Amino acid sequence: xxxxxxxxxxxxxxxxxxxxxxxxxxxxxxxxxxxxxxxxxxxxxxxxxxxxxxxxxxxxxxxxxxxxxxxxxxxxxxxxxxxxxxxxxxxxxxxxxxxxxxxxxxxxxxxxxxxxxxxxxxxxxxxxxxxxxxxxxxxxxxxxxxxxxxxxxxxxxxxxxxxxxxxxxxxxxxxxxxxxxxxxxxxxxxxxxxxxxxxxxxxxxxxxxxxxxxxxxxxxxxxxxxxxxxxxxxxxxxxxxxxxxxxxxxxxxxxxxxxxxxxxxxxxxxxxxxxxxxxxxxxxxxxxxxxxxxxxxxxxxxxxxxxxxxxxxxxxxxxxxxxxxxxxxxxxxxxxxxxxxxxxxxxxxxxxxxxxxxxxxxxxxxxxxxxxxxxxxxxxxxxxxxxxxxxxxxxxxxxxxxxxxxxxxxxxxxxxxxxxxxxxxxxxxxxxxxxxxxxxxxxxxxxxxxxxxxxxxxxxxxxxxxxxxxxxxxxxxxxxxxxxxxxxxxxxxxxxxxxxxxxxxxxxxxxxxxxxxxxxxxxxxxxxxxxxxxxx
Length: 536
Prior knowledge:
Blueprint: H1 2-18, E1 34-35, H2 36-47, H3 50-80, H4 91-105, H5 107-141, H6 143-163, E2 166-167, E3 170-171, E4 173-174, H7 176-202, E5 223-229, H8 234-238, H9 243-259, E6 263-270, H10 278-287, H11 294-301, H12 308-315, E7 319-324, H13 333-336, E8 341-344, H14 362-374, E9 382-388, H15 413-418, H16 423-426, H17 430-455, E10 460-466, H18 472-475, E11 482-489, H19 492-496, E12 504-505, E13 515-517, H20 521-528
Parallel strand pairs: 1-4, 5-9, 5-10, 6-13, 7-8, 7-9
Antiparallel strand pairs: 2-3, 6-11, 6-12, 10-11
C-alpha cells in the first residue's frame, strides 16, 4: 500500500510537471519526457535538513499545484479565446463564465460546477504538497540510490537538451513548469510596458479639440444607428458550411432594402478579440484605440477619450441612447460613451423567457427601441448604439421571427423557446453547434433587415458589424479575426461621403473586400462626415 501511494505521488508530480497548456498537445507523448524541475528538486531535497526540507517540499508542492491550475486555465482560454489566461487581468472573466454556465445548464448546475471546481483546486494544492513531501522523505531514505540516479538523470537531460532530442516533435529535455513561471513573469512585465505604451497612444487624439459644431456635419438631421451583432465574424460569410445560408439572408436583405430605397456598402474590420470579450471590440470601435485587454479597457473608460458615440453628444444635435439587452445591472460605462440614456434588459419592457444567455430576443430589442425612442412623436435626431445578443454563445435555443404587432410584452416567446434546441444537447456535437450558430446569425440579420425595411426612412443611417469571430468550435481556427461591417442609408449623399473607401456594394462583403483594423474606423468615420469629408 505504501509503495502504491508513493507511486501515485510520483505520477501526480511528474504529470503536473509535464502537463501542456494546450488541449491539442494533450497526448501520451507529452508525458514521455524528462522534467528538469524533478531533477533539480530531487537534488535540493537531498541536501536540505529535515525542517527545511519539509518547508521547501510544501511550498514546492503548492507552487506546482498553482502552475498546474494555470496550465488548465490556459487550455480553456486557448480553446475559447485563442490566447493564454492572464493571471492579472482575466479573473473577471471567470464571473462571466459562471453566468454562461448558468444560462446553459441552469443556476443549480452552475453552482455545483463552481463549488466542485473550488473543491478540486483545494484538493489539487493539498495533494500536490503532500505528494512532494512524501517523495522528499523517500529520496532521503534511499539517498544511496537517489543521489546517483539524480546525477544520471541530469546528465541525460543535458545531453538531450544539447542534441535537441525529440519524440514526435516534443523535446525530451522538458522544462515546462519553469517555462510557465518564466512566461508569467514576462507576461506581467509586458502588461506594465503595455500600460505605459497605451498611455502614450491614448494621449494622441486628432479630434479631441474639434468643436462640437464641426463634428459630424455630414450627418445632421439623420438618425444614426450603430448596431453590433454578437459573434458575427468572417466565418459566417465565408465558411463553406455556413456561408450559403447566411449569404442567402444577406442577398435577400440587399434586395429587400434596395426595394425600399436603401443602398449599402460592406467591408471587414479586424477585431482585437476572438471568441468573446465583446466589450473590448465595442471600446476599440468607438475609441479609435486597440483595446485588447482588460487593463486597457479600464484605463480607457476612466479617461475623457472622445468616442464615436460621445462625438454625437458633443455635437449637440442628437439625443444619444443605448439599447443594451445583455446588461443586467448598473453599467457606469454609459457615461464614458456619452449616452444620454441606457435601456438594459431590465427596462426594455420584456417579460418573456431568456434564450440561454440572451436576456432579450433581437427582434424585441429593436421593437423596444422603436417604442421607446425612434417611434416617439415630435422627437429630434437620434444616435443609438444597439447590441443584438441572440447570436451569443451557446446559440440554442434560437428565437424565430414573429409579426412585429405580435410581440407584446414578450410572453409570446414562451412557446418559441420550448420548440427550440437544448444547448446541452447541441454542444455534444460540433456540427450541431455550427448549425445553430449559423441559424442565430441568420435570425439576427433578418431581425435588423426587417426593422430597417419597416421603420427606416430617408433620415435613417445604419452601421452594423460583428464584434468578434465565434469560438474555435465554430471557426475551426480558420479565417482569422475579421468581422463584417456594413453602412446602410437611403440618402445617396451619405454613401457618397465614403465612396473613396472602396467598400463593396450590398450587405455581404466578398473575400477580397477591404480590411481595416477596427481601431481605424472612428477617425475615418469622423473625417468622412466632418466639414472636410465627402467623395475623394
